[in-house]
Design a protein that fits this description.
- With about 270 residues, the chain is mainly alpha-helical.
- It has a domain at about 140-265.
- Helices cover about 75% and strands about 0% of the residues.
- The radius of gyration is 20 Å and the shape is globular.
- The two termini are about 25 Å apart.
């Protein structure tokens, strides 16, 4: 019992997440640092003070970056504040007999606080210093297709890594469809490691979620999907929302919410 207390599931989750993230981060830096002339401080900043994986852009001193708009600062500040309120205030107001709902509110708050808020502010700070640091999230709800959501707007840090190290090498051998599906499979396996392994349950469900996303992208790009207009406009947006949200309880399954998220929220005094 003492050993379990020393390594609670939520801590195991963060250890795994940081280990995977730092490994991928180092790999992207290693591929770029010898090709792009840059001062040493940019390497340290990229490795230690920037969550993205766009090493080529971040290290390149020749990039010219406009100052961020005031509206971008306001948006990032609002999303940071909203995320903190959901995590530390709204979650507390949910009755104890609804723990899953409480955990989901906390997760949404954490995602807003980090990915849409803090990481966005970090991007704006670097842009203010003339460094090309694209935000991790790029208004994902403005997507009008599932392919646009995953390929151009959601978690662009992982997208950059996946495109360079998985999609591009496979594309030359097996084509775009198989290469794109492989990216979803790898993403699913990584999420299974970070979500299901610490939770000791729900194995395979995050991988299945991302395989479904790959299938959804294939459907909307198929002749049938194109005839239905699934890749554009209102139909494309609705198709995207349904495909993202209906199976999402398999991605963040109850084992994860109950055994990892809720104890983590207690550890940070959100509950």
């Amino acid at each position: 019992m003492a050993c379990r207390n020393l390594r609670p599931p939520w801590l195991f989750m963060w250890i795994l997440a940081f280990a995977i993230y730092l490994s991928l981060k180092w790999l992207t830096w290693w591929r770029s640092q010898s090709r792009i002339a840059h001062p040493a401080w940019r390497s340290f900043a990229y490795l230690l003070a920037w969550p993205g994986m766009d090493a080529d852009d971040f290290l390149d001193v020749r990039q010219r970056v406009p100052l961020p708009a005031h509206s971008a600062w306001l948006s990032a500040t609002f999303e940071t504040t909203l995320g903190a309120m959901l995590l530390w205030a709204m979650a507390r107001s949910i009755p104890q007999e609804r723990p899953l709902l409480c955990g989901w509110v906390g997760m949404v708050g954490l995602i807003l606080l980090l990915h849409f808020g803090t990481f966005q502010i970090a991007a704006l700070l670097w842009q203010s210093f003339g460094v090309k640091a694209e935000p991790i999230m790029s208004a994902p709800l403005r997507s009008t297709s599932l392919g646009e959501f995953w390929g151009k707007r959601w978690n662009l840090g992982f997208r950059q890594f996946a495109h360079e190290l998985i999609f591009r090498p496979l594309y030359r051998r097996v084509g775009a469809d198989v290469a794109g599906f492989a990216v979803f499979a790898v993403s699913g396996l990584i999420h299974d490691l970070v979500i299901s392994l610490p939770a000791r349950g729900g194995y395979g469900l995050p991988t299945l979620y991302f395989l479904l996303q790959g299938a959804g992208v294939a459907v909307e790009r198929s002749p049938f999907g194109m005839r239905l207009g699934l890749g554009t406009g209102v139909r494309g947006w609705c198709f995207m929302v349904v495909f993202l949200t209906v199976p999402v309880f398999g991605l963040f399954h109850p084992w994860f919410v109950m055994r990892v998220i809720l104890p983590f929220m207690q550890a940070i005094h959100a509950l």
